[in-house]
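Example for tutorial group B:
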């Protein structure tokens, strides 16, 4: 468990630590010295260390060498952030060029800064660049989809799928032809699963972690945006993630640790075709209350 301490000599009694973290700190009255009352609630987010203007707080997981000033002068403006968000596209055409390890490390570096429930930082990463393995994973995913298509042709199985999920009958029926087409394309030498991407990053976590799936997918989005800032293209490999979750063969290929589940995946590479325009999305449906 981390240890949180307040240096009474340095403390200015402004109570910022109490306001930022009431679950750990308390102050008898405004202006009195704050005290650590529930150290066991600390999740090592570091907020108290970052906020204290007097540097009076120490937290064992956030030693001074891990604390850095925000370089406000290089923070992107709303305009540049929005342009980046609207210009991001799923990229499915890749140059026959490997992605440098350093680039992938930069992407994963950004991913690890995503928020995570209780700051568990539960997400771990598997990077696949081995060409035969990428191909095998894509084939295994396509074959798994083929198996699902076969099952769905049985009306009883179709009913079971409908009972299990929230999909409607029309959508489930469409899956059959979509999945069969994927199998056909895969078997005839194209790659409708990974689109011959030179790299795959899989986001996985221990299933028992709080909000493991949400944490992983927030990390995916950080990775997606930082990848586009590096001139790299990505798309979310939903089919492959689903296969890794439900198909033993695909799971085994990735050597996922016991109790771990794949929650997100990004195919990654240098884009062959880029977009110089962006398209509007549906207006947001907002309920203001
Ligand atoms: C899926 C998810 C659920 C969260 N739920 C809560 C919550 O219920 N209450 C809360 O105060 N913070 C919540 N958080 C925020 C985390 O506690 C926070 O991201 C973490 O402590 C790290 O702090 P940071 O986001 O400032 O880096 C949640 C974060 C995620 C990703
Ligand atoms: S590190 Fe975060 S949770 Fe722990 S005492 Fe500081 S602010 Fe509270």
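The residue assignment follows.
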């Amino acid at each position: 468990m981390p240890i949180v301490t307040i240096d009474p000599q340095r403390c200015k009694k402004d109570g910022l630590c109490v306001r930022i973290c009431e679950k750990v700190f308390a102050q008898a009255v405004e202006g009195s010295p704050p005290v650590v009352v529930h150290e066991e609630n600390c999740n090592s987010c570091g907020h108290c260390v970052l906020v204290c203007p007097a540097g009076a707080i120490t937290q064992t997981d956030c030693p001074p060498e891990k604390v850095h000033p925000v370089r406000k002068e290089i923070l992107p403006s709303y305009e540049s952030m929005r342009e980046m968000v609207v210009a991001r596209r799923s990229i499915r055409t890749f140059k026959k060029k490997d992605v440098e390890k350093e680039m992938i490390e930069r992407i994963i570096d950004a991913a690890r800064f995503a928020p995570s429930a209780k700051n568990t930082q539960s997400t771990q990463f598997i990077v696949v660049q081995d060409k035969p393995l990428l191909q095998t994973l894509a084939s295994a995913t396509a074959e798994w989809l083929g198996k699902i298509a076969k099952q769905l042709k049985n009306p009883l199985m179709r009913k079971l799928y409908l009972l299990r999920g929230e999909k409607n009958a029309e959508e489930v029926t469409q899956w059959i032809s979509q999945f069969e087409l994927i199998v056909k394309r895969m078997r005839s030498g194209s790659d409708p699963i990974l689109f011959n991407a030179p790299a795959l990053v899989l986001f996985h976590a221990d299933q028992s972690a709080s909000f493991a799936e949400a944490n992983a997918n927030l990390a995916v989005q950080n990775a997606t945006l930082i990848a586009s800032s590096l001139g790299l293209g990505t798309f979310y490999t939903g089919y492959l993630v689903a296969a890794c979750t439900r198909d033993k063969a695909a799971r085994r290929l990735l050597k996922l640790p016991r109790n771990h589940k794949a929650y997100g995946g990004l195919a990654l590479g240098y884009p062959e075709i880029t977009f110089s325009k962006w398209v509007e999305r549906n207006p947001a449906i907002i309920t203001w209350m």
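The CA atoms of residues 280 and 286 lie 17 Å apart. Compare this with the pattern of hydrophobic and polar residues in the output above.
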